[in-house]
Amino acid sequence: MTKKSIAAIIFTALISFSSFSQDNGQSAFLEGCVAYSQGDWNSSVFLLKKAVAYPESASADAYYMLITAELNSENEADALDDCNTFLLNYPDSSYAPRVQYTKGKILYSLGEYEKAIIALSDFCHQYPKDDMYSYALFYIGESFYAVYKYEDAAEIYARIVSDYPDSEKCVAAQYRIESISQRSREEKLLYLLKQTGEEYLSAKEDYEKQIRMYNSDTIATTRKKLQDSQKKNEELENQINDLESQIASLRAEMEKTNATLAATQLEKEQILLEKNQAEANVKTVVVEVPVEKESAVEDKKEIKKEKVNSEYDSDIELLKYKAFVIQSLLDQQKEAEQ
Questions:
Q1: What is the pLDDT of residue 299?
Q2: How far apart are CA 262 and CA 274, in angstroms?
Q3: Which helix (H) or strand (E) is 136 found in, with range?
Q4: Is the Cβ–Cβ distance between 120 and 104 less than 8 Å?
């Protein structure tokens, strides 16, 4: 998100905070913000669910925080339900594109591949300029791949490679293209092996039949037939051996390609992780609080170090920032009242 988006989020937080009363829904939202800012996903899910149950504390911010918390606590089924609720009630929210993408991604993860294709295709149609466009294309391709529609999947992967070479999914898409190509070659070789094997068995049966007919035919004629049959058997056997060798070579090549692409993807993900960590270290949160409360505020700035899906890191950090601002303002208000 841009600096303008960050400013908008903080502005919204200030407006929301100014209208807070002490009812259950808003209290639950404040407590949920605290848990969210600390990375306590299970607690934040519980509290934010309680908050959105009250109309006065249900908002696009609260629902999006709830969805990301549910994803981090690996509760995809509830996250999917809340995605549907969000899109129904907040279709014009700035979070709507990400929620639509998230819905498709969850459907893919749950094995609902046809539904995932529809949801992600809707996302691509509605938000062609969104940063997550190449990701959505990739999971459309993965859904086609999962239901064995390899030609459709290959077209999607090829588009990612050609149109989005800088996307994180480019390496994975290239890997899938190679995998589909190798799979096609292997299937053709297996088909040839099957056909050749059947022909070999037929020739073998004919050969055995010629032996049985040996006593009822002339020696010269039978010998010629036996020689022809034997020669054909040898040729077919050589073909089978050659096909089996090609298949073994292809499989070895696939293993080598898989290892190379996996290493490349891992290296790229490591670079991205280091970049995200560096950007996170640069971010600072400045909130004016009384001197005697400074240590308490510093304690609240401590965030649990947990592994988070890189696709949601920036959004989660901004929401944590917002939650922290609300928490700090609440502390100031309480001190002023004392």
A1: 46
A2: 18
A3: helix 133-146
A4: yes
